[in-house]
Amino acid sequence: MCYNAPMNFYQTAETALLSPEIDTKERLCAELLRYCSTNETFDQAGHSPLLFDTPSYAAFCTIVSPRELPARKHFDTTEGLATLVHAITHIEFSAIDLALDAVYRFPQMPQPYKMDWLGVAEDEIRHFRMLNGILKQLGFSYGDMPVHQGLFDASMHTAGSLLDRMAIIPRHYEATGLDVNPQIVKKLQRYDKDPLIKQIIEAMAVIETEEIDHVRKGDRWFQWACKKEQLDPKATFKTVLQKYELLRQRPHMNVSARKAAGFACDELLDLGAKSCD
Predict the structure, then answer these.
(1) C-alpha 269 chain-centroid distance
(2) Cβ-count burial 220-232 (b if 16+ within 10 Å, e if not)
(3) Are 21 and 60 in contact (CB under 8 A)?
(4) Rounded-to-integer distance, Cα 214 and Cα 210, Å
(5) CB-based contacts of 135: which residues, under 8 Å, 6+ apart?
(6) How many angstroms separate the Cα of 248 from the Cα of each of 52, 53, 242, 258?
(7) Could you tell me if 97 and 157 are in contact, meaning their C-beta atoms sit under 8 angstroms apart?
(8) For the residues of 78-100, what is the DSSP string, one character each?
(9) Could you tell me the end-to-end alpha-carbon distance of the chain, in angstroms, rounded to an integer?
(10) What is the DSSP string of 128-179?
């Protein structure tokens, strides 16, 4: 296939974004990435990004409020462990759409931006497949348990601003995932004689390493947007968090991961880190 040939880039991105099928998302994402790698300009004629009423996973998931989700505490039972894995699998499926939406939603952005987020989408697809494989070993599949649509809602709330999107999705929510990851692993390690739990811990390590890179990409384009608008990044980030009522102290901040992802020490201390060692 010749990827220099004309391609309806944004229509393909929309199809990938809206599809509930992971195979379709993976195939179209690969096509978009290959096309993007050899094209620096993209025809935006007729492209007007849509706001969506429901996420792609609504086709097979029961969506509830976060308060209605089952507790993720009892890792010594198959169902308790599956509840945890299902929740993380849902985050990864949601993250595929977040990355695709970042490309679809902001067509004015340059080729390197598109390459970054299509690359993130490919990572998230791999994470999803890895976790869903573990879930199946536990006797469940993605969609067997209820989920919430908080990340989807955040993507729609930030649809009108690249700066807000980069602040809220990668720099807040994905960075919060970096904070939570070690806490989950610490709890799982109490049961790490179980081969399947060892497999989950290994998967979490892969995800943390690659999510650092995702947050770093979000930081890169947040800084880019701040520079373009002549704004101070540190003050602007706090302002955006306040705007969305997300400015709160993190009890267990993963300082080393956040630093690797682009956060400066003075910002981390300002956000509530006890130290920056």
Answers:
(1) 24
(2) bbbebbbeeeeee
(3) no
(4) 7
(5) 82, 85, 86, 89, 141, 142
(6) 29, 28, 9, 16
(7) no
(8) HHHHHHHHHHHHHHHHHHHHHHH
(9) 50
(10) HHHHHHHHHHTT--TTSS-B--HHHHHHHHTTT-HHHHHHHIIIIIIHHHHH
Residue 128 · residue 92 · CB < 8 Å:
yes
- Residue 63 has phi, psi (to 5 degrees) of -100, 130
Task: Locate 21 and state its tokens.
Answer: 């099928």
Is pTM, for the whole model, over 0.85? Answer: yes
Contacts of 185 (CB under 8 A, 6+ apart): 201, 204, 205
One-letter amino acid at 174 equals E
Amino acid at 250: R
Residuewise pLDDT in 10s, the chain (277 residues): 334 445 789 999 999 999 999 999 999 999 999 999 998 788 777 789 999 999 999 999 999 999 888 877 677 789 989 999 999 999 999 999 999 999 999 999 999 999 999 999 999 999 999 999 999 999 999 999 999 999 999 999 999 999 999 999 999 999 999 999 999 999 999 886 788 999 999 999 999 999 999 999 999 999 999 999 999 999 999 999 999 999 987 778 999 999 999 999 999 999 989 898 7
Q: How many CB atoms lie within 10 A of CB 234?
A: 15
